[in-house]
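Standup notes, structure subgroup. Blocker cleared on the uridine-diphosphate-N-acetylglucosamine input:
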Amino acid sequence: MDDKNKVLVTGGAGYIGSHTVVELVAAGYTPVIIDNYSNAEPSVLKGIEKIAGTPIKFYEGDCNDVSYVENLLRTEKNIQGIIHFAAYKAVGESVLEPVKYYENNIGSLLVLLKLMKKYNIPDIVFSSSCTVYGQPDQLPVTEKTPKKPAESPYGNTKQVCEEILEDTVNSYFQNKNEQHNLKAIALRYFNPVGAHPSSLIGELPLGVPNNLVPFITQTAVGLREKIVVFGDNYNTPDGTCIRDYIHVVDLAKAHVKALEYLSNQEKAQFFDTFNIGTGGGNTVLEVIKTFEKVSDQKLNYEIGPRREGDVEQIYANVEKSNTVLGWQAILGLEESLRDSWAWQLALKKANE
Ligand code: UD1
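Run returned:
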């Protein structure tokens, strides 16, 4: 096997991870997945392999388990870079169980950084979130938009992990005796939606979904009775919140670009952040209307109270990702919702 482009993908069986593994194979990389299935199904691997047309190395284990990850690195050898998805992501749960979130989300990054140094792995791409901006004072947000205090332990883990990466890069820079040429990129995702157009992989929320689009598709397919729109008295054109919905396949491709950028980066000790969104925003009602159009379904929805902690509106300025990474979103809201719906129907068929 050609090890030149071997990449460890933590959380590679998850929603964004699985789509990224597919794009890595398409770009000539050899992804190696580590996932503990805490929020993923073993069946995902089959879907990935079917699309990719090749077997994928898979390790079932926890990124917080330093000896497990170390054994993996010893076995695999020659891992050139890491894409670190593995993390908990439910905002509400993080408020109830902060220790679980801090331990898992921060602990796993620390394990990776320690081992990256020991095994001389230079590059890491980290899954961050637009949640680091809170409700920004100016829209669209650029990477220079000041961060706001995190609204939840989940949001805080994203901010802290970005800081850990930056501090670690700077520490090696200042301490010339250190030999580790760490280079890191944090990708700040806006709202990932959609599924692979093959309908072989997609989002698999455990239990009741927190996010808008899986809630919409589960309602349309009859798994939920109705969807509640969280507030219609915001200062937006139709009163509902605005988000930047990015197709998961476009998002997956951004990771490949980030990895390429890092490996071409001559300068050691490099850290940077990039917004990954479409550059535009849609209201909740626009999402619902667009879903009704592409699915030809009438959605049972009602207006309810605001959800605590929601920001009114946020969407990305993506100039830096466009120009520096050479990445841009191709797919729009219609394609995203079409693919989410096709995926939901494929799941239904598989369960019949
Ligand atoms: C949420 C998290 C964010 C995280 C992201 C990961 C919160 C407050 N924020 O973002 O930190 O990075 O998920 O994917 O949870 N909506 C409804 N009805 C619903 C569900 C959602 O009206 O049943 C609305 C929300 O008010 C929001 C929009 O849909 O305006 C999108 O919500 P969601 O998919 O939960 O994403 P975010 O809240 O943007």
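Discussed briefly. The chain has eleven helices and 13 strands.
Next: hand off to the docking folks.
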